[in-house]
Amino acid sequence: MFEPIKAALRRAAPDGLPDRSKGTELEGRLLSDPRVRELIDSIGVAPEAALRSAPALLRYLEEAASCAGCPGLSACTHAFRGHVPVPRRGEDGGLIFAYEPCAFERQAREAARRRRLFRTLSIPEELRAVRMGDLVRDEHNARAIAAAEAFLARQIRRSGRPEAGARGLYVYGPFGVGKSYLMAAVAGTLVDAGVSVFFAYVPALVSELRAGVGDETFLDQLRELMTVDVFILDDLGAEQVTPWVRDAVLLPVLSTRAEGGRPTLFTSNLPPEDLLELYGGASRDGVIDELRAHRLVERIRTRSEVVFMGGPNRRLSPPAAGPRTR
């Protein structure tokens, strides 16, 4: 094991002046190290050329040794945290080192990228890891899974780019049949392909938006919902329905997304036609606004493939494998 680089260099020149005998000793130790010999042979550098970079070579060996037992980024002691020196042959035939992200740094960057691409609100953390391959197809969910696969093929082919007339999905059915799990699989697959997703539980989304009314937070949040590549509304109709939810949130968001060619996906316990009564019953000053409810439901119908998903309630008797639901 080599001593720390500063100590080795001080010993080679204790007074700050070159000492050839000490330098020769250090060079001999370097050239006798099997790691150095392997490095020189692998990149085709002459020994004397490699020794011109003796300080960098010492640092490389020191950092390589510290990397061997590194538990993670928090323990990294490198000057360039999270990066490892990679030896290369320079244009002059000498030895140079380029710094590249280590495995831990790459993992951290990927996690950060996924956080930027995959926003969730009140969605169980374990659903972030679900992919289409985790789904177990049966007679109850086969049509919904096929519709999701077709949607993914279109969306990934476009890399999430807006497209005029883009259609989403509206998956409805009883409690606990795996609708949210299916949407989580869609979301995770999209994020893997570099498509941004906002996956929100509707009652929680409404509460958060309402809390931001009166400042710039509300407008910023609406803008994000309008511009994310794919927006997933989980459990539409479970929120406290009011004229404000319908007219200030759902209608402008869905209209803007449709005009911009950005698809929206939904889960609900209700078929679209039942939304007419739900949102038409949201009154303003005692007046039932059926026209706006019709506009909302038509926006959903014309921009979504409507699919029923049935089956047993997996919350009551979860199977050994297959979709889990919250």
Please state how the strands of the largest beta sheet are arranged side by side: 3-5-6-7-4-10
Helix content: 40-55%
Return residue spans where pLDDT drops below 50 for at least 5 consecutive residues: 1-22
Q: How would a textbook summarize the main sheet?
A: 6 strands, parallel
Written account of the structure:
There is one protein chain. With 326 residues, the protein is an alpha/beta fold. It has two domains: 5-101, no CATH class; 112-308, Rossmann fold (3-Layer(aba) Sandwich), CATH 3.40.50.300. Helix content is 48%, strand content 14%. The chain contains 13 helices and ten strands. The strands form three sheets. A six-stranded parallel β-sheet has the order 3-5-6-7-4-10, sandwiched between helices. The protein has a two-stranded antiparallel ribbon with strand order 1-2. Helix 11 runs parallel beside helix 13 (290-302). The two termini are 53 Å apart. Mean pLDDT is 84; it is low at 1-22. This is IstB-like ATP-binding domain-containing protein.
